[in-house]
Amino acid sequence: MFYREAGDFSTTYPEDSQTFPIRFDRYRYYVVLAFAFLVVPFIINDYWANAILLPFLIYAIAAIGLNILTGYCGQVSLGTGGFMAVGAYACYKFMTAFPDLSMFINVILAGLVTAIVGVLFGLPSLRIKGFYLAVATLAAQFFLVWLFNRVPWFYNYSASGQINAPERAEFGILVTGPNASAWATYLFCLIFVTISALIARNLTRGSIGRSWMAIRDMDIAAEIIGVNPLKAKLSAFAVSSFFIGISGALFFAVYLGAVEVGEVFGITKSFLVLFMVIIGGLGSVFGSFAGAAFMVLLPVLLKVVGVDMLGMPTDIVAHLQLVVVGALIIMFLIMEPHGLAQLWRLAKEKLRLWPFPH
Amino acid sequence: MSDQFLYAIEVTLNGLMAGVLYALVALGFVLIYKASGIFNYAQGVMALFAAMTLVGIMDGQVPFSHLINATFGTKVHHFGWHVPALAAIALTVGVMVALAWMVQRFVMRHLVNQEPIILFMATIGLAYFLEGVSDLMWGSEIKKLDVGLPQGGSRWVEDATAFLGSENFYGFFIDKLDMVATVVAVLLVIALMLFSNYTKQGRAMRAVADDHQAALSVGISLNFIWILVWSVAGFVALVAGIVWGTKSGVQFSLSLIALKALPVLMLGGFTSIPGAIVGGLIIGVGEKLFEFTFGAMMGGATENWFAYVLALVFLVFRPQGLFGEKIIERV
Q1: With an 8 Å Cβ cutoff, are A322 and B125 in contact?
Q2: With contacts defined as CB-CB under 8 Å, which chain A residues touch B127?
């Protein structure tokens, strides 16, 4: 009833191979985009931007990145926090070294630097797999955080060891620094999210995405039918790290403004993004958004219910949050290993026939 | 002998002791991995949970008191009794067995035949869950754990070795606790070896590890064996929790020792009990010596990552670790 593909005929090849081949999907996508770009900036306030929308958008990019590596290519990584730190520090170095450079270019350059680092740490994936690799990526996590903590060049020899984002304007409007307005930072992140999602969606539909999935499903078989594992795995690491680097740069420059690396980009961040990918759905771009939204909203929701409505102390709610997150992870793995994205798919199947199931 | 050389030896000795402690945690991983093919990330949190439970029982804390007080407005904290250490340890073992049963009943049973990586992620979820539960149950403040293990530097060793160096050398400093830990670890390994080689349950455990279906077909109960394995791992976690808890207090960072045990495992091989010991020793000595020689030059705190990078480099050349079974892939 609400969702149908009947009567939707493609008459040309480009029409058939576009990003959203079903008309309903396409229109929904335009509506969401129009709402996000044209309505939200006018109604946004500081609380919504800082508590929900900015973290959601930025984590969505990180989740897309990790989903490409873990969900599409099957290489589990626990180094996301470290790679986000690379993005943040690269962005900081570019911002301070070239004050006239556009923020857009800064963020993209930070992504490229992270991609190179990601490929370096992805090299062991050619020899080892499964959780051996997961543990190996922990090496990246700890080494990178230590590096940014201990080598003063990275934080420009500042006394506190922190990095602070200087103010940068885009078209005359501040997007970083404490005086940037909520709608500007929101739009800045939204542009990156939209482009990242579009790139990710199209990469995973194309030949390179297919080679990733072939490696994920069975690497030996993939090798035999002519998929180059070196190319597939390292390209997955590069693309994934690129997105994660962008999200790290935005997280630092636009969202937080000041970063202490061990606190912000520690191992918990790696797990948080991994949880987003698991709960949202492995191997789905939409799932990355759903997972990011879920993991950003859950603490807010628990806080509203626990602290504001039931009047419980904050530390108990924080502990309860751990319990709930852990239980949810296990529940999702047991009941729906494909996450929220699969639930969405099932809902669509049901809606096609609703209210007449036969 | 020059003092510098003697200091290096002292660092090595302390590294060996630290390595034993790492090996103690790594043992729990190896046990579960061998018996069920699950890489149990929650091992470190289990050590934290065990240590917290032990302290809680010894002090007569009311479980979930914080939560109860917040919900019902009561003010209960302690039962008002103190349980002797041995009785408390026995009770904690009981709790760990109950935990093993629950893990098997509510998590692992539903994940039979899943891919290893899914199981791994499930144990990460378990780790979060358990961490939250142990904080809710016993409160998250740092606690002191004292079950009567000796502590402090050993005067005897210092006096016995003081003659080696010059005037300024006072002998090797070795923590008594580390020596006790070494003895405990050795005993534990011997006990585990005897258990898995000479008892009926131990043999059944190895059979399950070899082949689930074949074990089932000769009448071994998978459920029972898995509960057993998780209980043994819980026991090892308790031992590790006691030693580490006595050393540095029972607090959240205790669960991070799991992260230190991972490179130990990669080095020693996931399937080998001696590998866990040797890997632990190599990492313990390696990181202490590395910090001693290069630490000052590189800004210190190299211990955070040295083990991982060493294991990473190692893995590239020998993916199965030092003692692990060769990984053979069949198509």
Answers
A1: no
A2: 326
- Residue A275 phi, psi (nearest 5): -65, -40
Question: Rounded to an integer, what distance in angstroms lies between the CA atom of residue B255 and that of residue B126?
Answer: 13
> Could you list the residue range(s) of the whole structural domain that residue B9 is in?
3-317
Q: 0.80 cut: is pTM over it?
A: yes
Residue in A134, A150, A330 closest to B301 by CB: A150
Distance CA B107, CA B110 (A): 6
Residues of B in contact with A273 (CB under 8 A): none
End-to-end CA distance of chain A: 12
Q: Which long-range contacts (CB under 8 A, 24 or more apart) does A161-166 make?
A: A161/A260, A162/A258, A162/A259, A162/A260, A163/A88, A163/A89, A163/A92, A163/A252, A163/A258, A163/A259, A164/A257, A164/A258, A165/A92, A165/A95, A165/A252, A165/A253, A165/A254, A165/A256, A165/A257, A165/A258, A166/A95, A166/A96, A166/A99
A29-41 per-position pLDDT tens digit: 888 888 888 887 7
How close does chain A come to B171, measured CA to CA in Å?
Answer: 33
In a domain, B36, yes or no: yes
Q: Say whether A146 and B120 touch across the interface (CB within 8 A).
A: no
Helix axes B176-198, B200-210, angle to 10 degrees: 80
B266 within domain boundaries: yes
Q: Quickly state the pLDDT bin for B160 (edges 50, 70, 90).
A: low
pLDDT at A241 over 90: yes
Q: Is B133 within a domain? A: yes
The domain locations on chain A are 26-266
Rounded CA gap, B240 and B257, in Å?
10
Mutation target for B interface from A316, A320, A332, A335: give the one with most B CBs within 10 A: A316
**Has residue B149 got a pLDDT over 90?**
no
From chain A, which residues contact B within 8 Å (Cβ)? 76, 123-124, 127-128, 130-132, 134-136, 138-139, 142-143, 145-146, 149-151, 220-221, 267, 271, 274, 278, 312-313, 315-316, 319-330, 333-334, 337
For the stretch A337-354, pLDDT in tens is: 778 888 888 888 887 777
Q: What is the number of structural domains in chain B?
A: 1
Is residue B328 one of the residues assigned to a domain? no
The answer to whether A58 and A246 have CB atoms below 8 angstroms apart is no
At a CB cut-off of 8 Å and minimum separation 6, what does B203 contact?
Answer: B196, B197
**CATH number of the domain to which B170 belongs:** 1.10.3470
Q: How confident is the model at residue A247 (pLDDT cuts 50, 70, 90)?
A: very high
